[in-house]
Write a structure and sequence with these properties.
With 265 residues, this protein is an alpha/beta fold. It has a 5-stranded mixed barrel.
Length: 265
């Protein structure tokens, strides 16, 4: 009854089923790893955002690489904005996905070291892409700022190519080492996304808090792939039984069909 399993059609179908099962199981484990990674990232972000603000020089120093655990920690600093050496970061979007610039302003501390402050997003509306845009001024004089500590940006992490030969005072990536060379000063590793004081007139638009990654979605995908893996052999068995039943019924009908002409004679 089951000799049909040796036909080319059924051998191919069986082989495909055998390949699908481990593939779907592996995809389920991949989604499990993504779920664990995203859950861990969400926990780290929540811990950092809820941590008590600390002076920036307790966390970073010139040449320091901001770690995953330090990222998003709220830090404070007191000093003055150096708008003469302000730059803009190209091809950045706001919460409405509008393309513009991030405003990066050196912030000179009392000991002469520099903290890079991303003051937020401004529109790219202007006479041209090569001209330096009009940037709202920060508070004058000594001021205390607060912000989320961020690591230096890289092409590998951001996907943004570090294009050379840009117009004056325009950059693609925020990198403390490059800014230290440009300024000729000691620059603290990483930079901050300013959260306080809030700008006058709501511009530059301050960068929103990092959202939670959708870890439960990966968990749902994990379960889905494993259900698919369990469903493949079940589906194969159903098809086999249907085929066998059909062949069995066809075999019973054949003798009856042959007997009818004989009876008529």
């Amino acid at each position: 009854m089951y000799r049909f399993l040796l036909t080319r059609q059924w051998v191919i179908l069986t082989l495909i089923s055998l390949l699908l099962i481990p593939t779907m199981i592996r995809l389920g484990f991949w989604q499990k790893h993504r779920y664990e990674e995203r859950s861990a990232r969400n926990a780290l972000v929540a811990q950092a955002l809820n941590a008590k603000p600390v002076p920036v020089e307790q966390v970073t120093e010139p040449g320091h690489a901001v770690t995953r655990k330090e990222r998003y920690h709220t830090v404070t600093a007191t000093g003055t904005f150096d708008t003469a050496h302000e730059v803009v970061v190209r091809r950045r979007t706001n919460d409405d996905d509008e393309v513009g610039y991030h405003v990066l302003t050196p912030f000179v501390l009392a000991d002469g070291k520099v903290l890079l402050v991303n003051r937020g997003w401004i529109s790219s509306d202007g006479p041209s892409q090569t001209a330096f845009p009009k940037v709202p001024a920060p508070p004058a004089g000594q001021v205390t700022v607060q912000g989320r500590l961020m690591p230096d940006e890289t092409t590998a992490a951001s996907g943004i190519k570090d294009i050379k030969g840009l117009p004056d005072r325009q950059i693609m990536l925020i990198n403390s080492a490059e800014q230290a060379r440009r300024l000729g000063k000691q620059v603290l590793g990483g930079y901050i996304q300013q959260t306080a004081p809030e700008p006058k007139g709501d511009t530059p638009e301050q960068i929103s808090d990092p959202g939670k990654e959708d870890a439960p979605l990966n968990y749902a995908y994990m379960i889905q792939w494993w259900l698919f893996a369990a469903g493949v052999p079940y589906g194969w068995f159903v098809l086999v039984r249907r085929e066998a039943r059909g062949r069995e019924e066809a075999a019973k009908e054949e003798p009856a069909a042959e007997a009818e002409p004989a009876a008529a004679v």
